[in-house]
Amino acid sequence: MFIATLLTNPATPKLDRATVESLRNAWGGGDAIWLNPAIAAEFPIEAMPANRWDVWEGLQALGIDLVVQPSVIRRKRLLLADMDSTMIQQECIDELADAAGVGPHVAGITARAMNGELDFDDALRERVALLKGLPATIIEQVFINRITLMPGGPTLVKTMKAHGARAALVSGGFSEFTSRVADILGFDEHRANLLHIENGQLTGTVAEPILGREAKVTALREIATQMGITPADVLAVGDGANDLGMLGLAGAGVALHAKPSVAAQCDIRINHGDLTALLYIQGYTIQDFA
Question: For helices 92-99 and 120-129, what crossing angle results, to 10°?
């Protein structure tokens, strides 16, 4: 059995009963359940539809996301999340670079690295080198003045933890930011890269080894083993090429507002919904939200 979930952006609810019932009838599905009126609904189907991606494409034009997944082990016991452009709306290194006067150049490198066009480790070293000489106090200034949470993030973490799950923030960014974001959102732990600071200034280097794609996979395996669960019990979410390893290994790997080349390699693609979409695809209703 499979579950088909339709959802849209909670800020602009546009999911109507006619759309849900039309698809349910076309796919011979069971009764539809509304997880949140006008925002999310689901229904069971017996087999994976051959035209799933054609339907997905048509719904995208209407501002609606479609997820079809096995009905077993839907509620996950571990949330493993990327930070930049996932749990927060910015790329921290781009914001630091903007403060250093090299914003556009670094943003271009970041975009290519996240799209898988550049080696992640080398691209990170190159970008960090351009931050050399910045006062360390810029980190706090950037966090306070430039960083905003991704909509739905607090509800996602609180709800999963309220239902017994664990949450880990695993970023190719910097621990100076993940520590703050993890504390605000209630993550149980965080892993990221460490910027070198000497005499109150950024040195332009980062601690080795760099936490990249394989380190995120390692984090998933290590934390799952500690919890006594398997990757099937993990929900991973990210947007960049360095997230593909953990997204592919997790029982549910979500490409959230991801780069096209990244989304194309994932079965679960959320382009319109916010982070609460990760609750709906697990079968949570609005009444279950913490």
Answer: 20
Other beta carbons within 10 angstroms of residue 114's beta carbon come to: 25
Domain with residue 7: its CATH number is: 3.30.70
Which residue in the list 84, 94, 121, 233 is annotated as catalytic?
84
Last residue of a domain, one of 17, 44, 72: 72
Domain span including residue 67 = 1-72
- How many C-beta atoms surround the C-beta of residue 51 within 10 A? 11
Active site residue 274: no
Q: What is the pLDDT of residues 140-193, one digit of tens each?
A: 999 999 999 999 999 999 999 999 999 999 999 999 999 999 999 999 999 999
* Single pTM value for the model: 0.96
Q: Identify the CATH number of the domain in which residue 151 sits.
A: 3.40.50.1000
**Is-catalytic flag, 82?**
yes
The residue annotated as part of the active site, out of 82, 233, 239, 274, is 82
